[in-house]
Design goal:
The complex is a heterodimer of chains A (297) and B (389).
Chain A lengths: L2 H32 L6 H17 L5 H24 L7 H23 L4 E2 L4 H4 L1 E4 L2 E4 H23 L1 H11 L1 H6 L4 H26 L2 E2 L5 H14 L4 H21 L7 H15 L14
Antiparallel strand pairs in A: 1-4, 2-3
Helix pairs in contact in A: 1-6, 1-9, 1-10, 1-11, 2-3, 2-4, 2-9, 3-9, 6-7, 6-9, 7-9, 10-11, 10-12, 11-12
Chain B lengths: L1 H22 L14 E8 L6 H17 L2 E2 L2 E9 L4 H13 L5 E3 L4 H14 L3 E3 L14 E3 L4 H15 L5 E6 L3 H18 L5 E7 L7 H10 L3 E3 L4 H13 L6 E3 L6 H7 L7 E4 L9 H14 L5 H20 L4 H9 L4 E3 L2 E3 L11 E7 L2 E8 L3
Parallel strand pairs in B: 1-3, 1-4, 4-5, 5-6, 7-8, 7-9, 9-10, 10-11
Antiparallel strand pairs in B: 2-3, 11-14, 12-13, 14-15
Helix pairs in contact in B: 2-11, 3-4, 5-6, 8-9, 11-12
The chains are: A mainly alpha (297), B alpha/beta (389).
């Protein structure tokens, strides 16, 4: 493989990986605080993408205003889901909440089919985002530079939020023990609600970036990214925010390199991701950056 | 109390959305127990999923045909639609439901060879005849006495595009990129390869056959390989949406060679998603209103345009024809018994359809001409008609 070719593949891998990383952050944050894998995360990104689409089409809003509104509405939707589907199960076994999350995921997919129809829709993309640059024989789209930048920015903002602010301290306390946190005067419901708002905001940003990169949306658009980013989060160490970013980048680059180096295995690209998941769970369940946490009793 | 109400509302919405999505919301009224005065015809099409546009376009044609010709043998024809969700196992389930639950005597469907190949054996086992609108893979009807189709098959379609690439575009080398999970794409890719090699006389004229998987949205790895190989044309059979995304990504990577594809690209979504990137792309398909051959076709263009306010596409036309071929078979059989319909279908000869004259051969396939369309200024434009020899 020539050098140019290798760098082009690497650029493609980073571009895909940064998207995975962006979505995996939201997954891992909700898990880190609540010990809940929010399976509806992928479907929230679908809803966000549709909100941008309809904001521009029906209400003829400028694209940036549609994006801002979609992020706010998705955050509200996330809070609503938490209120309706997760909060009533706060004292139930964790598996009940997990099943509820799967239910919400199916609900959003079918709701999307009823509301938006099963046919795919094309997403508008501003021209400046789609402009391509030739850098030393490697073609890179502006968007492929914007997405990693957004990912890193959100990583920093989120790390600051969780580790440096009072709310973040409350979140970490809640993640340890609801009852003790409550005794310390923390409003657990409010903190968890806030966690979901933040997680859904991340899903919205991820969904919009995904729709800009692959400008076709349909009600099941969130399923595959949802699964892949879950794998990325587990690979990096679920609950660990920098781990999710690392996992996302490695998964994206790994997938691209698999297809590039072994074209015959291209059909097994998704299988490759799932094999990584299984191997991680077998040999390093805490992931690359995850630390051993004693299971609370 | 308030909390319970909220949960109840959620459950009700969930159930409603599931049941609506489940039947595609398009079953004609009447339901069970309509008695002997009704002839029940089932339809299984992808109303949701990757091929939703194809299924919905086909259903428009079938519905229109039913509206214009609602009766045969003095009985009303009632349609039952099941959504196969662009999924092989759902397709088999859909056929099963049509036969067991709706007691249909004949079935129309499905857009997409994979779905038809999954549904076919179920119908064969139950002895219910099926007429496919647009599944083009030869294996759909091969070895299945109950499966027929009103479209051409892929050995022909592959040759049409190989000939176009070689003679009209002057291409000496090609790369094939195909959805490896899709029987249609794999089959059509193989037939294109065979024909292209025989035109160029060189095994090496196909530089590579690259795969992708159903649900992939990122094709940059395959396309970077293509860019490096620098072929004269790229043949990329696949679903309209995937292919449009792929062509966009190709242009972003600086690949300017022509893309060629098959009939599944004929969907408005292909142009909407592809935008400027798909300008100049050529594809083969079954029908164009600009190249109508029969009187039935002229009438069809008129009524379709009046009803939907747009020009008909190949899939609406094939859906229309599939319905008409079944009606014709019931009329000739003088009976609505599945076996009698099957035997009459097998004897279909010189039936004047919208998409051409239909004669079903011993496999149950029609021999028809293909048209080549080219995307020009955001529209599919008729380029030429290719006749089978």
């Amino acid at each position: 493989m020539s050098q140019d070719l290798f760098f082009q593949h690497l650029a493609n891998g980073i571009s895909l990986g940064s998207l995975y990383a962006l979505i995996a952050i939201g997954y891992t944050m909700v898990y880190g605080i609540l010990r809940l894998i929010n399976f509806a995360h992928g479907d929230l990104l679908m809803m966000a993408a549709y909100m941008v689409f309809y904001g521009m089409l029906i209400f003829s809003l400028p694209w940036w205003l549609s994006v801002i509104l979609a992020v706010i509405l998705t955050a509200a939707l996330g809070a609503g889901i938490e209120r309706v589907a997760y909060r009533p199960l706060r004292d139930s076994p964790r598996i009940s909440v997990l099943i509820s999350a799967i239910g919400v995921s199916f609900f959003l997919e079918n709701l999307g089919t009823v509301l938006f129809g099963g046919r795919a829709k094309a997403v508008y993309r501003p021209d400046w985002l789609a402009a391509t640059h030739e850098i030393g024989g490697v073609s890179i789209m502006t968007l492929a530079l914007v997405i990693p930048a957004v990912t890193i920015l959100l990583l920093l903002v989120l790390s600051y939020l969780v580790y440096k602010t009072k709310t973040g301290m409350a979140m970490r306390a809640v993640s340890r023990d609801y009852d003790t946190a409550r005794l310390m005067g923390i409003d657990v419901d409010r903190v968890i609600g806030f966690t979901f708002v933040t997680g859904s905001t991340l899903a919205a940003v991820g969904g919009i970036m995904w729709a800009l990169r692959y400008p076709q949306i349909h009600p099941f658009i969130g399923v595959m990214p949802g699964l892949k980013c879950f794998i990325a989060a587990v690979f990096g160490g679920i609950g660990n925010i920098p781990g999710a970013v690392l996992g996302g980048f490695l998964l994206g680059i790994g997938e691209i390199m698999l297809v590039a180096l072994f074209p015959d295995l291209a059909g097994y690209r998704d299988a490759f991701a799932f094999v990584i998941l299984i191997l991680t769970l077998l040999f390093r369940p805490t992931g690359l950056l995850g630390e051993k946490i004693a299971e609370k009793v | 109390m308030k909390k319970k109400g909220l949960i109840l509302a959620l459950v009700v919405m969930l159930v409603a959305s599931l049941s609506l999505a489940g039947c595609g919301g398009a079953e004609t009224d009447g339901g069970e127990g309509a008695g002997d005065d009704v002839i029940r015809i089932g339809v299984y099409e992808p109303m949701t999923g990757d091929s939703a546009a194809g299924g919905q376009m086909t259903w428009e044609g079938i519905e229109l045909a039913n509206e214009l010709y609602p009766e045969v043998l003095g009985k009303k024809v009632q349609l039952f639609l099941e959504d196969n969700k662009t999924d092989k196992s759902e397709a088999a389930n859909a056929v099963h439901r049509l036969i067991e639950h709706h007691n249909v005597v004949a079935i129309i469907g499905s857009y997409g060879s994979s779905m038809s190949m999954a549904g076919g054996p179920v119908a064969q086992e139950k002895g219910i005849p099926v007429v496919g609108c647009s599944p083009t893979n030869p294996l759909v009807t091969l070895g299945n006495d109950y499966y027929f189709r009103v479209c051409f098959i892929d050995p022909f379609q592959g040759r049409v595009m190989a000939q176009y690439a070689f003679e009209d575009l002057g291409a000496d080398t090609a790369v094939i990129i195909r959805n490896v999970a899709d029987d249609y794409a794999v089959g059509l890719g193989n037939y294109f390869q065979e024909a292209f090699v025989s035109f160029t006389g060189s095994e090496d004229s196909i530089l590579a056959v690259l795969d992708y998987q159903k649900g992939d949205q990122d094709f940059t790895a395959q396309l970077t390989t293509v860019k490096n190989l620098n072929p004269d044309v790229i043949f990329a059979p696949g679903t309209y949406g995937d292919s449009a995304l792929m062509i966009r990504q190709a242009r972003e990577l600086g690949i300017n060679q022509p893309f060629l594809g098959g009939d599944t690209w004929e969907a408005p979504e292909f142009i909407e998603v592809g935008g400027e990137a798909v300008e100049g792309v050529a594809l083969s398909t079954h029908y164009s209103p600009e190249a109508t051959v029969t009187d039935a076709a002229k009438e069809f263009v008129q009524v379709y345009t009046d009803k939907f306010g747009k020009e008909p596409n190949a899939f609406a036309a094939l859906g229309f024809d599939a319905y008409m071929v079944i009606l014709d078979a019931i009329e000739r059989a003088g009976s609505a018994e599945p076996q009698a319909i099957r035997d009459a279908l097998a004897a279909t000869e010189n039936f004047e359809g919208v998409t051409g004259v239909i004669t079903l051969d011993e496999n149950g396939d029609a021999t028809k001409s293909a048209v080549i369309l080219k995307v020009d200024n955001g529209e599919f434009r008729y380029l030429t008609t290719v006749n089978p020899n």
